[in-house]
Structure formats: C-alpha cells, structure tokens
Design goal:
Number of helices of chain A: 0
Helix content of chain B: under 10%
Strand content of chain A: over 45%
Shape of chain B: globular
Order of helices and strands of chain B: EEEEEEEEEEEEE
Shape of chain A: globular
Largest interface: A-B, 26 and 25 residues
Strand content of chain B: over 45%
Structural class of chain A: mainly beta
Largest sheet of chain B: 7 strands, mixed
Oligomer: heterodimer
Number of strands of chain B: 13
Number of helices of chain B: 0
C-alpha cells in the first residue's frame, strides 16, 4: 500500500521568504509517480508537477523547485521569494500502476504581506 | 479546450436522501476518477471508471456507486446520505495506459455537498 506523509500541517511565512514543503512517501513498487498539487480557496486542485521513480533530477520552474531523493523517500517542494498568491493548501501524492492516486493530508501555506 | 467540468457546484441534501453528481472529462481523456475531500483532509479515492466499467475502488461502502457513459462523462451516486458524507467531491480525468498514467490527473472544481 502506498502512503504519503506531509508532516507540516500549517506553515506561515512573510512575503519574499523561501519556504520548503516536505513530503515523504512509502511504496514497495520500483515504478511509481509522484505529484504536487495546489488547492487555492476556490477548491480546484491545480497540477504542479509529476516525476517518475526513474528520474531523480531536480526540477526548477520559475520560483518553484522540487527535490526528489529516493534514498530518503522524499519529494520536497520549495517556493523561492514567496508571494501572497502562493497561499493555498499544497498536496503531495503518489501513484503506482494498477492503483490509485494517494494524497497526503496537505500543508496549508499562508504567505503574509 | 474545456477542462474538467462538474455539476452542480453546491448541493444541500438531508439525511437519507440520494444524490447524483456529474463530471465531464477533459477533451481526449478516457478515465474518470472520483475523490471525496472532507474539510481539512486530503482527497480520498472513491473509484475510477474506464471504458464504462469500474476499474478500481477505494474503501467506500456500496452506497457510493457510479457510471461512465460512452462519451466518457461520469456520474457519482450516493444513496442513503449520512451527515458524514458532507464533503467536497472532486472528479479527475486522465489518460491511463497499462504501464501507468499517460497524463497527469486534471481535477474539476468540485461539488460541495452538505448533508443536514
């Protein structure tokens, strides 16, 4: 069975600070996919990134970056120079073929002006 | 290109009633998954439909049932509503292959169900 743990329930930062959201996953499969989604107050889940288990290369997209480390089963998400519009709930999720998308409990990020 | 659409946006029901939620997938997607998201929690997988059949199911009772139509749209039905069924119901569409997801799951805006 898959499990995703987001230990940080809530994080509050001041605008322009960098913030890292932690994600730890558990799976017995060698092939799996990891995702990050953003859920603003409107409720819709917005896809941010997908990585497969064979690609440990870190990725940067604008102010967003992701650090995938199989050795520690972590897939952390960093927002650089945070902005108020980044305030949302962020979910990490995992997927294994033949299974289903398993979400963590989410991290509520509040960026204060 | 329209994304995933869901209807209705909000719904209020009373205990014991039945409800039907609807979802239209993103163009080109053939698989629809339904999730229940209680307040303050992550989405929980209910079931997934592919080729008009239930492909997988999460830990939800038989009161939760679904259907997929030839045009890939889907319905979620919940019978004998309980107060605990109050939640945001999310639909996600994707293109899924044998080896894994060929596309990420795109989510709709959700239907907020309140059971009184």
């Amino acid at each position: 069975a898959q499990k995703v743990t987001q230990a940080q329930t809530e994080i509050s930062v001041v605008e322009k600070e960098d913030v890292t959201l932690d994600c730890v996953y558990e799976t017995r499969d060698t092939t799996y996919y990891l995702f990050w989604y953003k859920q603003p107050p409107s409720g819709e889940l917005v896809f941010l990134i997908r990585r497969n288990s064979f690609d440990e290369q870190n990725e940067i997209s604008g102010r967003y970056s992701w650090n995938f480390q199989k050795s520690t089963s972590s897939f952390n998400f960093t927002i650089t120079a945070s902005q108020v519009v980044d305030s949302a709930v962020y979910f990490c999720a995992s997927f294994v073929s033949g299974s289903r998308l398993t979400f963590g409990e989410g991290t509520q990020l509040t960026v204060n002006p | 290109d329209a994304g995933v659409t869901q209807s209705p946006t909000h719904l209020i029901k009373t205990r014991g009633q039945q409800v039907t939620l609807r979802c239209s997938p993103k163009s080109g997607h053939d698989t629809v998954s339904w999730y229940q998201q209680a307040l303050g929690q992550g989405p929980q997988f209910i079931f997934q439909y592919y080729e008009e059949e239930e492909r997988q199911r999460g830990n939800f009772p038989d009161r939760f049932s679904g259907h997929q139509f030839p045009n890939y749209s889907s319905e979620l039905n919940v019978n004998a509503l309980l107060l605990g069924d109050s939640a945001l119901y999310l639909c996600a569409s994707s293109l899924v292959g044998v080896q894994g997801p060929l596309s990420e799951q795109f989510f709709g805006p959700g239907t907020r169900l309140t059971v009184l």
